[in-house]
Amino acid sequence: MRIAVAGAGLIGRRHIEELVKSPHASLASIIDPTPEAGALAAELGVPHYATLERALADDRPDGVILATPNRLHVEGGLTCIAAGVPVIVEKPLAETAAGAKQLVEAAEAAHVPLLTGHHRNYSANMAAAREVISSGVLGRLVAIVGQATFYKPDDYFDVGDGWRRKAGGGPILLNLTHEVNNLMALAGDITAVQATTSSATRGFEVEDTAAMIFHFAGGVLGTFMLSDTAASPRSWEQTSGENTSYATYPDEDSYHVMGTVGSLSIPTMRLKTYPGVQSWWSATDDSRIDVAVEDPLANQIAHFAAVIRGEAEPICDGRAGLKTIQVCDAVQEAARTGAVVNTGIS
Ligand SMILES: NC(=O)c1ccc[n+]([C@@H]2O[C@H](COP(=O)([O-])OP(=O)(O)OC[C@H]3O[C@@H](n4cnc5c(N)ncnc54)[C@H](O)[C@@H]3O)[C@@H](O)[C@H]2O)c1
Fold this sequence. Notes:
Blueprint: E1 2-6, H1 10-21, E2 26-31, H2 35-44, E3 48-49, H3 52-58, E4 63-66, H4 73-82, E5 87-89, H5 97-110, E6 114-116, H6 124-135, E7 141-149, H7 171-174, H8 176-187, E8 190-198, E9 209-216, E10 221-227, H9 236-240, E11 255-259, E12 262-266, E13 270-273, E14 285-288, H10 296-308, H11 318-337, E15 341-342
Parallel strand pairs: 1-2, 1-4, 2-3, 4-5, 5-6, 7-10
Antiparallel strand pairs: 7-11, 8-9, 8-15, 9-10, 11-12, 12-13, 13-14
Helix pairs in contact: 4-5, 5-11, 6-8, 8-11
Bound molecules: nicotinamide-adenine-dinucleotide.
């Protein structure tokens, strides 16, 4: 499968690296108006295009990974869909739920695969966790506890005009999106949220810490703690070991999923289940599911190639990306108003 990458910035270059190595797909072209992107295309011996329209017209790829700035996601996604070319749109699918809905509806009407680039869906740990849950080993799901707590170094905030200290630059907008997508992949749709925030530690205009309650369809409840100022290495990257740019802690968990028969800690993958009648007087059978660390970005490309060939249905489609935006919007509103906010997902 020949896959083009539009937007050769920070994450686009990671996709390019993975495509060059992939046994499942090849890099068709690089689409990005900058001279740096042209130089990279020349180095890799692939065509360089300044616009998506030109690339689709001159050398139609089998698929596109759209890693352009957020504001260009809807426009770029619609261009691929109109040309009938399957596309992974980097997260967030769009800047607004309305934009994401437009994209999803266009893809569904045209029967063109649209995927959202929440690459953690292709984590081997997440795949194993979804399998455990769907196997029924945990019984009926009751609750999920999640955590993304980490310490962003103080100089992280000294960029540009200091936008990371202001509204929109905090962990709810920057970090929560992948977490929400993971939680829904594990426990189903989130229908309502409650949230409260604090900026007491850093003293910035934007939150440094947030506590959330998630109401899942079917009555499952979840709590989630998010902080970028807590010296507690429990972010997904730090616990899963999937991104070696971070120091990793294989003994720490990000999520704990609880059912009526057993519970699973992720990503340590410690499983506890009652062998007989469930009771707090009895001991659980304890085991650990052995999962080798895999690069989710590489797995995402393998999956995309299978979707393009018609051999797989998208694991994280456009609708999943839309739902993630709806939940994150609801979290912001809940934090602002103190109300229980419906996500609009039924
Ligand atoms: N999945 C992840 O974990 C992850 C991580 C980082 C970023 N992202 C997402 O990826 C997207 C890109 O983020 P980034 O950090 O790589 O940004 P970036 O600014 O580093 O890169 C964006 C690139 O897009 C190019 N570009 C701008 N206009 C273009 C156009 N019309 N056509 C083609 N290319 C164009 C720019 O020249 C630049 O090279 C964002 O939506 C971001 O949210 C996802």
